[in-house]
Structures are given as structure tokens and as C-alpha cells.
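During the second year of the project, the team shifted from modelling isolated chains to modelling whole assemblies. The rationale, set out in the original proposal, was that interfaces cannot be judged from single-chain predictions alone. As a representative example for this report, we include one of the complexes processed in the last quarter. Its constituent sequences, exactly as entered into the pipeline, are reproduced here:
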Amino acid sequence: MYALAIHGGAGALPPRPLRSEREQAFHAGLANALGAGQAVLERDGCALDAVEAAVTSLEDNALFNAAHGAVLTSAGTAELDAAIMDGEQLRAGAVAVVRTVRNPVQLARRVLEDTPHVFLVGEGAERFAEQTQLARVPNEYFITPDRRRQLEAIKAQAAMPAALEQPPFGTVGAVARDRSGRLAAATSTGGMNGKRPGRVGDSPVIGAGTYADNRSCAVSTTGHGEWFLRTVQAYDIAARMRYGGASLEAAVVASIEQRLPHLGASGGLIAVESQGTIVIRYNTPAMFRASVRSGEQALIHIY
Amino acid sequence: MYALAIHGGAGALPPRPLRSEREQAFHAGLANALGAGQAVLERDGCALDAVEAAVTSLEDNALFNAAHGAVLTSAGTAELDAAIMDGEQLRAGAVAVVRTVRNPVQLARRVLEDTPHVFLVGEGAERFAEQTQLARVPNEYFITPDRRRQLEAIKAQAAMPAALEQPPFGTVGAVARDRSGRLAAATSTGGMNGKRPGRVGDSPVIGAGTYADNRSCAVSTTGHGEWFLRTVQAYDIAARMRYGGASLEAAVVASIEQRLPHLGASGGLIAVESQGTIVIRYNTPAMFRASVRSGEQALIHIY
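Output from the structure prediction step:
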């Protein structure tokens, strides 16, 4: 059997309920991304390829806060972060502050495959991209009118603290268990609306926003990036399983529903363990999410 | 009581034993840094200030691979990474690919104190530095003739893989437990000799190279940065204690002496727990290290 889960971010509810047209568009985007990942798993592809395919689809969709449609820095630019990890051999690739690579998750995959390194950032990541076949785009490609308006709104509030209290929807991610039992995770984001240029959140940080180990679980998180960095959120789930003997569900509940609220942090995560059990939890009002297991119907939810 | 430990890197032995004059210089550098941190603890200062003081001293010493005397990228430049974490409230600050800030650990401290963020990299970190009172220097300040020669040597070997197999000495770090029972950790590095520009290792990554939580331990690592990113090394120690009920010593031994060699990874770490017990372990031939506890004699060792 195989299992796949994706997310399009967790956060506060919009000021008024999403209008149904827009809600349908989010549903369709999640369905497309889930289908892209599932197609890989259905043809016996590996979990690593499946999460890359799903996240690529979400990156290309302007509705989500990753690549095309990313939120903007205080300087009005898009700076993109992504990571991917293979639970089979703990191989990982990550990039941050990328400005011209159309699909940052694919650049993270190339770091994993083609370099002795795990994490490349900024200009160095751009220079590495030149040595790959990956599509490059001007920074304007990522920037949508919606995100410009959101940046203006947050600047009007003059409010980084407010931004921290109300993380926007949108970071995307995927976790998968393929038919051979391999686990993988990937995450991609534009970060936080109005962030300081050069700011890196949890998404591209192995152990914080992204983690996979066949012996425990694969995890992709979304929410308060700064808190998830401090709590080493993704690896915290794996460690509760490996060292505390917790089930995936018990580990996630303890970490997301008990520990994070105690710290005043909000967000959510998707996770899958070696037997294909999927767990999705969030302590925010809503989270864009979808999942499917071989032979079962796909589930797509927002609230 | 208080406790303080520092390291100046773990790695393979130099081709021939360090000549005694050079060995004395390393001893003196470790003693100075230990003294700088101890002075803070002796006057009832906090653990966070103590680790910052100790690491600043090591950064200023050209013998160690951090700030002045850092190893160089393949482009011949110095790109500096550092992190600092307060175990009291899980506050953390980190910077990577810094090129003009004399003491990167101090910039990491400013990220912790003055921003809502945890991690700033590259140009964004430099721009943030402009808003602080921190000393700025041209990149040449960091570059020593020794490091230029080492870069030429590794280029002659045309060998990133070799570099990965033989991590050089030098990453620096400190962990402390102050008289009030607060824990803190800090790490600073130039990274890996001949690294690709933009490469980030474990040192500035919270959970990988640096971690502190009053309820478990403070950890600073040195070694195979890429492996320590994949194994989420520093948090792995804390998690073995919190979720597995291990003592600090048992956690470190299991992680460094059993897990890492099984993966083919080498390195070491310094750690201190809430009662002031210090544990230092490495699976490399040598590690520059020093420690002291209130009322006890300082220990300084290389082999």
C-alpha cells in the first residue's frame, strides 16, 4: 500500500468565510497536487518523487504561499525556501532565500542528489541553480496582486508582532509512504508576509519544518516558523516515537495539541509513519489539507 | 554552582603531531576563552552572556575556524555562521553566510534580542547588522595565510568528498549552566574548507549544531556538518533525555559513540545539563576542549 498527505498551510480564518468560488479553487488546487503525487505512487514510484511532484504542483498554484503566489518580504520581493528529505538514508536537500528558481523544491532535490551538502542559501543557491537544468524566472514571476495587497495591509499595521500572532495560510508540504515502505517529506514556502529580507523560517530547516526517517515518520509542518525552529518541531515527533515509544498519533497530539499551545505557538503538521498511517493535526482554526491511501478515497478539507 | 564547557573543533589528527609551540597556542586560546566565559558566571552573570563571551574569544583567535581565521569557500572568501540559544525560554538567534560582521555570535545574539525572527542569512543578515552597533570589517579581516594554503591544498586534491571524510579542526562552541540553573549554548564556524559559497552546515541550525532547554540540556556540536543536519544532532541528545529518560551521559554516548559511527559520520559535542554535569564526547581522534565548574580546576585537552 501507499499513503500520501499534503498541506497548503494552517492559520487563522480569513476575516469572513472564504467565498465558495475561492474555496472551490483551493479544493481544486489541493486535488491537483494530491493527484500529481498519487500518480507517482500508483506507478510504484518512490516517496521522494511523490512529495516532489505534489509540492511542485502547489508551488505553481498562485493560491498557496510558495513559489508563484508567495508572500513578500518587507522590501516587496519574493524569497523562497524549500526542503526535501528521503527517509531511506536520511538524505536531505534544502534551499533558502532563493529568488529566481521557478520550483524551489526541485532545487532542494538537486542539492540532495548532486552535492555533498544539505543546505544552500542566497546567492550560493542561485549559483548552484545555474549548474542545473531547472527553470529560472524573474522575481516578478512569483509576485501576485493579492500578495502585494497583503504586504501593504501588514505595513499599514506596522506590525511584525501581529504577523507573528496571525500566521497566514499557505506554506505547502507533502509526506509520503511508498509501496516499498520508504518515507519522504517536502516543504516549500514564501515565509511570513512582510518578513525581513534574509529571514529563514522552519520550512527549509531539516528537523524543524521537514523531516523523514523510515524508522519513525515523515513530517511537514506549517505555522509559526520561529516557534517551530525553537521546538525543532518535525524531529520532535520522530523523537517521541523513537525514544518515548509513542504512536505517531500520540506523538503528534502531545506535540501540537499540548506542547505548542502551552508555548503560545500555533500551526499544524502532516505526518505519515512506516505502516502508512497518516496523522494531520493543527491548533489553528483551519488548515488546507488532503490525503489519500491506495484503494481509498481522497480526503480534502479546509476547516 | 555553575558549569562551562567550550570546544575548538573535533577532527582528524594533523599529518604529524602538533608541534609543541603550536599546541601551547591552542591551549592558551582555549584557556582565554574559558576564562572569558567563566568571568561572566563568576560574577553571577547569565549562561547566555557566558557562552557569548567564550565564543567571541574563540572567534577573535585566528587558530580556530570561526570569524578571524575561518576556513574559506571555494571562491576564497570567508562566509560565517553562528547561533546562540537560551534554554530558559527557548529563545534563539542564528545567522549564516555573514561576510562583514566581526563577531557573528554577537549578531546571532542581536537576532535573538532585537527581532521577532530566529534565523537571518546572507545579505539580509548584513542589512540587519547595519542597524546594530556591532563592529564591521572587510572580508579580508577573516582570511589568514594558513587558511589560504589549506584552500589551495584542498583544491589540489580537487576533493569535496575528501573534505567530507576529513573534517578540519576548528568550529567553536560553548555551553553553560549558570548559578540560577539557566542553560545556554552557542556555536560559530567558517564551515568546511573549500565549501560551495552559500553552503550552511549544522552550526547555525537550531537543533542540529546548537540547542538549549533548561529542562534537558545545552549542546554545541562540531564535525560532519551535513550529517549533523540529517541527524538533528543537538536536539537528538535533548530528546533522548526527555522522551527516553536517558541521563545526559547515556544520551551522548548512544548518539555520538553508537549512532554516528553506524552512519559513517564523525564529530563530537559538548553538553551540560540542569544539575551542571558536563559531558564531552567525540568519535574523532582529537577534539579541542576545555571545561570548568565553580570551585573546581579548569580542564583543557586536545587528545
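Chain A has a mean pLDDT of 93. Chain A touches chain B through 52 residues (CB under 8 Å).
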